[in-house]
Amino acid sequence: MASLGGDPVNRPVNRRVNRRVSRAGLVVLGLLSVVDVAGLATTDGEHPPWSVAILGAVLGVASLALLVPAWRGGRGATVALVVLRVVSAATAVPAFVLPDVPAPALVLAAVVVVATVVGSLLVMPQLRRPAATGVAGRR
């Protein structure tokens, strides 16, 4: 009789693969957080505006603080990290619709949005609940 939850022999391998994929996503989100913090030092006040750079730095610092508990497998910290990174990526969207945005700023905004999507998707295995170990419905 097949057990619930897949082949028990392959479960540890799947967990290791999922952990590696999730950690790769956390690395991507961590690098984006560092870029946000560095944005405060690299802005000219116009691209991005000071308000966006300050907001990005605050989101970056908060994201960096969430990396350690997320790295340790904290589901709540991982969800909060993804939310902060999505909010940060949303601050880059106006660059695509405002006039006179320099090409390097547009490229950086596109990279930030795409990397946020990729990093968020990579951490998804960490957000799944573990499968039940018992057989359901047995008496």
Protein topology:
Elements: H1 11-42, H2 50-71, H3 75-90, H4 103-122, H5 124-127
Helix pairs in contact: 1-2, 1-3, 1-4, 2-3, 3-4
Number of domains: 1
User: Mind summarizing the main beta sheet?
Assistant: none
Low-confidence stretches: none
Taken in chain order, the helices and strands follow as HHHHH
Quote the average pLDDT. 86
Instruction: Report, as a whole number of angstroms, the end-to-end distance.
Output: 16 Å
Helix share bin: 55-70%
- How many helices does DSSP assign? 5
Structural class computed from helices and strand pairing: mainly alpha
Strand content: under 5%
Please tell me how large the radius of gyration is: 19 Å
How many DSSP-defined strands? Answer: 0
Shape descriptor reads: elongated
What does this protein look like?
The model has no long low-confidence stretch (mean pLDDT 86). Helix 1 (11-42) runs parallel beside helix 3 (75-90), helix 1 (11-42) runs antiparallel to helix 4 and helix 3 (75-90) runs antiparallel to helix 4. The protein has one domain. Helices cover 68% and strands 0% of the residues. The radius of gyration is 19 Å and the shape is elongated. The longest helix is centred in the first third of the chain and has 32 residues, at 11-42. The protein is an all-alpha fold.
Question: What key attributes describe this structure?
Answer:
139 residues; mainly alpha; 5 helices; elongated
Short description:
With about 140 residues, the chain is mainly α.
